[in-house]
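User: Can you help me understand a structure? I only have the sequence.
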Amino acid sequence: MKTIIITGQSATGKSFLTNKLSKIFKNSIVIKTDSYYRDNILIKLLSIFRFDIYDRILSFKRKEIMQTIYNLYNKTRVITSYSYDFKKKKSKQTRVRVNYNGENQFLILEGIFAHRLDLNYKETINILCIDEKEICFKRRLKRDQRERGRNIIEVNKRFSQSWYLFYKNIKTFINSSEVIKINPVDQISYDKLIINLKNISKNKKN
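Assistant: Let's start by predicting it. Here is the structure, written out as tokens:
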């Protein structure tokens, strides 16, 4: 199973790109790192005083997501699936059955922590979503107000720090791996990416 890594700063179009790819490569499995946030009392307390806690690896269930990936690589039929409610700051687990459909199946790992896992990124397809900071802020403001109940002051504080932290931590990934940089809403670069992925899928079949 070939793995696609989709990472990028908040509101750069990661989920947008992931949804488009999953519709084209219909048998793919999508794992979002946003689903693996911790909900213990320490993280809940820190989230009150630290606007950037959800952009730090401390808040992330690294062990659990690696177990999920391991199970998928080994084609385990029933795995534990995670989801996270940002308003309630609550994590939920469910057991789901996975349909493994052929050798050309992609595993898509998407999120701000997708490039910070214990994986061999020289063997994965690495995509970095990029866009202008002002555009990303407008997208995040709209999303956080609608989905996470945050006001503009809170979003601004969170966004400014998360932007800094992401680009601070992405340097090692870029320097040590082959990375495709793409603006998901740019049709030309998107089309090139799709052609590339279709060729990879075709070669896997052969």
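Now, to help you interpret it: The domain at 2-195 is CATH 3.40.50.300 (Rossmann fold). The first helix runs from residue 14 to 24. Let me know which part you'd like to focus on.
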